[in-house]
Amino acid sequence: MSITVDFTDKTVVVIGGTSGINRGIAELFAEHGARLAVASRSQDKVDDTVAALRTLGAEAMGFAADVREVAAVKAGLQAVYENFGEFDVLISGAAGNFPARALGMSANGFRAVVEIDLLGTFHVMQSAHTYLKKPGASVVNISAPQAFIPMEAQSHVCAAKAGVDMVTRCLAMEWGPQGIRVNSVSPGPIDNTEGMKRLAPTEEIRQMTLDSVPLRRMGEARDIGNACLFLASELGSYISGTVIPVDGGWAQAGAGSMAQAMSKLVP
Description:
By secondary structure, the chain is of the alpha/beta class. It has helices at 20-31, 43-55, 70-84, 107-128, 155-175, 194-199, 203-212, 221-232, 258-264; strands at 11-15, 35-40, 60-64, 89-92, 138-142, 181-187, 243-246. The mean pLDDT is 93.
C-alpha cells in the first residue's frame, strides 16, 4: 500500500519559520503542495524565506512580528487570513535559549525566555484560533526535551517548555470539540541549527551528544518536518494532546551527556 501526503490547497502557517528547524518544516510542507505563511522578528529573513518557498513552487507570504507583542501577532495573522483564508495547519515554533545557571541569570534573562517560548506560544494560539479551520485544523507546538528533563543551566527553558506542553494538552481539551487537534513535537539534537551551535559549541560536546543518541546520528530539520506532516495529515487525525519526542531515542537516556558538558561551560 502506498501513502501520499498531499497538502495541495492547504494553508500552513509557521511562526518562527524563517530559520533552523522551523524553516525546514515550512520548506517540507511547500514540497508537499501547501501554501505557506511564515513569520519571525526579521523582515529580511521573512523576505528571504518567502522567496525560497516560491522557488519550491509554493504560494507564500510572510510577516515580521515579535511573538511577545500580541497586537503584532494578531495583525500578521489577520493579514494571512485575508490573503489565504482559513488555516489548515499552525506550527508555533518561536523560541529563545542560552545556557545560564539560576544564580548567574538576570530576572530579565529568565523573563525573556519565558515570554518568547511560553507567552509567545499562547499569543500565537489565541490569536490564530479565529482563523483555524473548524473542524480539521491541526496545531503543532515545537517543544524541547527540557520540558520534561531537568538540566543544569536550563531552568528558564525547562520552565517555559514545560508550560508549552501543558498549554498544548489543555487546549487539546478546550478546542477538541471544535475539531481542532493540538500536539507538541519535541526535537532532539538537530544538526546545522543555531540551537545546537549554542548548546554544543565545541567538537567535544558535539561528539558526546552524538554518542548519547541511541540511533547514533544527529537529527535533521526534515525529521521534525516529517513528524509535523504526519500530525497535520489524515494519518494523524485521531491524535491530539500528545507530546512526541523526535530525537532518535535521546530522551530515554535523559538527554545524555550534552547537558552535563554544557553545564561545565557556565560559571
